[in-house]
Amino acid sequence: MSVLFDGLSLGAIYAMIALGYTMVYGIAKMLNFAHGDIIMVGAYAIYTTMVFWGKGLWVAVIGAAVLCTLMGILMEKLAYKPLRGASPLAVLITAIGVSYLLQSLAQLIFGVTPRPVNLGSFGSVEILGASIPVSTVLTLVIGAVLMAGLTLFVNKTNTGRAMQAVSEDRGAAQLMGVNVNFIIMITFAIGSALAAAASVFYLMQIPLVEPLLGSMPGIKAFTAAVIGGIGSIPGAMIGGVMLGVIEKICLSIDAIKDYTTAIEFGLLILILLVRPIGLLGKKRREKV
User: Fold this and answer.
1) Pairing of strands 124-127, 130-133
2) Please, is 157 exposed, middle or buried when counting C-beta atoms within 10 Å of its C-beta (0-12, 13-18, 19+)?
3) Are strands 208-209 and 124-127 parallel, antiparallel or unpaired?
4) How far is CA 257 from CA 8, 246, 249, 261, 266, in A?
5) Is CATH 1.10.3470 correct for 2-111+135-274?
6) For 63-143, where are the E strands, in sequence order?
7) What are the pLDDT digits (tens) for 83-123?
């Protein structure tokens, strides 16, 4: 039972990160491979606020959310907006460059040595006869609330409907008066804020921060987004939870725990062979 809860908790973290990937791709039609490094920025913001400034966890969390949101907006304005009409390859290379830039800046400022981050002890609770860390329960509950809130925002608000319109047809949305640049900026801001939340929960599981902290979670979250169907918000959630549960189950079995990452990416290949658009992906007709 504890393995299942751990898997759901990790899956919620992957889902929060995957939502950033899938929203940006669905609306801006680009793969922001620097998104994983926003998690690292959030983790270092928490570390700096708690260790150097001596502030509490809540202040650190709010500071990380604000910084990551501003970082996402700045990234979109400086790196991606000038390439709005460029080829997908140019945008992809730029995203990889931004990722390495953020990692290099973190190495210059903080060094390469992993630094411990103590978020405090949350204790544990007993659920169905199993002792479950409170941090795991918090990750599940807050993650579910954030994802439900995002779904309601996209489906029920004017900005959310504008996002859907831009995702379907950017040109037609612009003709109808939708500010496409603003919508893309909001998308980056929301995705980066979710990455900040993911950084908090990730530090609850692995209380160490380093410049490459966001690389593997970012890649696995992208894998989750592709499994669920890149561009689909429910797909990102399902893919993240699925990947988290599979990872924890594999790690709990001694015979296959060393092959956990290979199994995860093998699942991605298998799903793409059977259903190239992902579990909940939709086929799109390309206009000529």
Assistant:
1) antiparallel
2) exposed
3) unpaired
4) 18, 11, 9, 9, 14
5) yes
6) 115-116, 124-127, 130-133
7) 887 888 888 899 999 999 999 999 999 999 999 988 877 77
Taking each helix axis as running N to C, give the angle between helix 180-205 and helix 158-168, from 0 to 180 degrees, rounded to the nearest 10. Answer: 100
Interval 161-199: pLDDT, tens:
999 899 888 888 888 889 999 999 999 999 999 999 999
Residue 80 one-letter amino acid: Y
Q: Is the pTM of this model over 0.70?
A: yes
Rounded-to-integer distance, Cα 198 and Cα 285, Å = 34
- Domain coordinates of the chain in residue numbers? 2-111+135-274
Place of tokens 């410049």: 211
Buried/exposed code over 53-85 (b: 16+ C-beta within 10 A; e: otherwise): eeeeeeebbebbbebbbebbeebbeebbeeeee
Compute the residue count for the chain.
288
The per-residue pLDDT for 288 is 46
Q: What is the dihedral of CA 52, 57, 59, 61, to 10 degrees?
A: 100
Distance CA 15, CA 224 (A): 7
- The letter for the amino acid at 136 is T
Closest CA to 189 of 79, 94, 76, 81: 76
CA dihedral 201, 190, 160, 275 (to 10 degrees): -60
